[in-house]
Design goal:
The complex is a heterodimer of chains A (about 170) and B (about 280). Chain A is mainly alpha-helical. Chain A has eight helices and two strands, in the order ααββαααααα. About 5% of the residues of chain A have low confidence. The chains are: A mainly alpha (about 170), B alpha/beta (about 280).
Amino acid sequence: MIEKRATSSRRLIKQLLKPLVDEWGPEEVAAALSDLSHGTRVADSTTGGTKNRVRFRLSAREELLKTELLRDEDKQLLLPLAERYDAKQFLPSVADVREFLMMMGIRPAGMKDRREAFRNLLRGFGQMPTIRIRQIAEAAVHAGPSELGPLSDAIAAASNRMRGERRIEEEENE
Amino acid sequence: MARPDGPLVVCVINLKGGVGKSTITALLARRAFTTRSLDVLAIDLDPQANLSQGLMNNAYKKFLSDQRPSIVEVFNGYLPPNSTSGSPQPIPPNSLFEVLANSGGRALQLIPSRFDFSDNLLGAIRPDPRTLAKFLSSTFKEKDLILIDCSPTESVLTTAAYHASSKVLVPVKPEYFATVGFPLLQQSLDSFRRNNRGNKIDVAGVVVNNAFYDGGNNGGPEKAKAMSDIRAESRKNGWPMYQNEILHSRGFPKLMRGDYSYPGNSAYFFRFADEFFRSIGL
């Protein structure tokens, strides 16, 4: 009985969604559904209930693999970037994503959280040729605000290397 | 698309430190690329390398550890021996800049600086101040806008910036010592024009930075006095002043270290930026 009700309800949802998918495509509809549900979904529709909800969030890696906006080759290039995004080692805040998109020449649309921001990134990458995606994947290093400590260490290390070499040269010349 | 008569080169200078030259250069370069859709090159001519750090953020560490070429190599004219080459090497085309962003055939590029820039110049026979102008004319003739961030101390680098530029942007803070750099800058420009009659270089304008303090009281009598001095000195030198001041904001240092959250009053930078671009015909 429960199984029959679930099947019929799924059929009805599909019927309702079909014109939307035909008009806007699966990506847009999925993004809009995600916005509507604020990242929640029915956990087990076979129970027929709507009370039992669980948090449902795709990681950036999963979003990337799932998207139809990118070719497989481009997805492979972007995979390390998506993993760093999940670990907040790349574009750790929505503001960072907004700035990154602007620097790529893309006007950022409204973004409420990092997941939504990542979908914006995917749409941006979807408009780019593979060569450009490769460049970005290799060069995109923005990992949030710079800190004085590591920068200071890098300057000191480079200074020792350069000035040390020069001192040896000068001593040899003397 | 490149300007038909070559890039417009603007140096940002005041012979007084701490007036916001590097911050203004960084924000103008980014804005020119993102909202004006221009092909932009920024040049860090200051050994303190604040512009480089502000535009590259965490990537600046890697730039240092990779020993990638910088403005030092532009003036030296060669790449020094390193782990892969046992002798000095010619500079390959398109190797002397960092690409910060690109889109639709245009880019925002940076020739970064290093702290050892001053060491290099100290150790060298006086470098030719025309080196930078020659380099730009051969390598970057397709750009729309080139912005040069200058050091506040007058040196051969200042002359190099003058040789390469047709416009000068002068940031100033409305404080007691605000106009200290003005007579020095005017003398420096006059001297350059006397010695280089073929070069046409004009002050595009003076921009007042950090324009009010303490929650919007607009600085009170101290600012009023400083502003009066700035106007008088600018008039005396024949330098126009921009109508839009750059408001005081804690958002500016945040932007310079790559923190784009809550920009505060720095979000109003566009008012001055748009006036500046109009004033130089972009």
